[in-house]
Design brief:
alpha+beta; four-stranded mixed sheet; three-stranded antiparallel sheet; about 45% helix; elongated
């Protein structure tokens, strides 16, 4: 049985269940959800008005040759406009890329797709700064991957603190120490070498810039080695 095109059916098929195979992972939703935002690749797929590269019909399901990791965020956005809580900076970059491909433009804009992807180019430079904080003396791809993981965990810890503060409704102002981010995960073993590295200011600036890219009004307090967040104001790119 082949999926039925909404363009060639009556209104009762708008609520038909659609089976999607995205990169080998199965998702189930309705045609109504996929049609909720017009002019996306998913809506055109259901309408059957355009043949789309990387999307084929196979055994009664739509096969989409894309990474399925963040596809549930895209479906949730189409269902009710839900915006995801992303655990790390890299997730934001990945979702920006996928939502742009599916042409879900409002979600892509929320990700700050162009800005995020452009910032991702600078991401490697920021990771290199972390190299000395972990007593890694020589550059290699293996060490570089480790640095990406370390920096990602630091940003993830910062987002966790921000989300917890926001959920607790403790007010618009939040300040946390850069060293707090090391204590929250398995980076604690690197705190001593980090303090000796002499690059606290550079890393503080990197973390602040990453949070700004994610839309937070974040500023660096170099005197206290801390990050200040104003949750009730839109993000900016100014450091104190």
């Amino acid at each position: 049985m082949q999926p039925m095109s909404v363009a060639n059916s009556n209104n009762r098929f708008v609520s038909m269940v659609v089976r999607l195979n995205v990169g080998g992972k199965i998702f189930m939703t309705t045609a109504k959800t996929l049609l909720s935002v017009p002019n996306t690749k998913l809506s055109r797929m259901i309408e059957g008005t355009t043949q789309i590269s990387s999307i084929v019909i196979n055994n009664g399901e739509y096969f989409i040759d894309r990474d399925p990791t963040h596809f549930h965020h895209i479906i949730n956005f189409l269902r009710d406009g839900s915006l995801p809580i992303l655990s790390c900076f890299q997730d934001r970059v990945d979702l920006a890329r996928e939502s742009k491909w599916y042409e879900v433009n409002d979600l892509s804009s929320w990700c700050g797709s162009e800005e995020v992807i452009e910032t991702a180019i600078q991401y490697q430079q920021k990771i290199v700064l972390m190299q000395y904080a972990h007593s890694i003396k020589e550059f290699s791809m293996d060490n570089f991957r480790k640095n990406i993981k370390y920096y990602d965990k630091i940003i993830s810890s910062a987002l966790f603190i921000i989300n917890q503060h926001s959920a607790s409704q403790l007010g618009p102002w939040l300040e946390f120490s850069l060293l707090d981010l090391f204590d929250m995960n398995d980076l604690a073993q690197y705190k001593t070498s980090f303090l000796k590295s002499g690059i606290t200011m550079q890393v503080l600036r990197c973390v602040c810039e990453s949070l700004q890219t994610l839309g937070f009004n974040a500023n660096s307090n170099y005197q206290n080695n801390s990050i200040q967040i104003d949750l009730w104001s839109p993000g900016n790119n100014n450091n104190n």
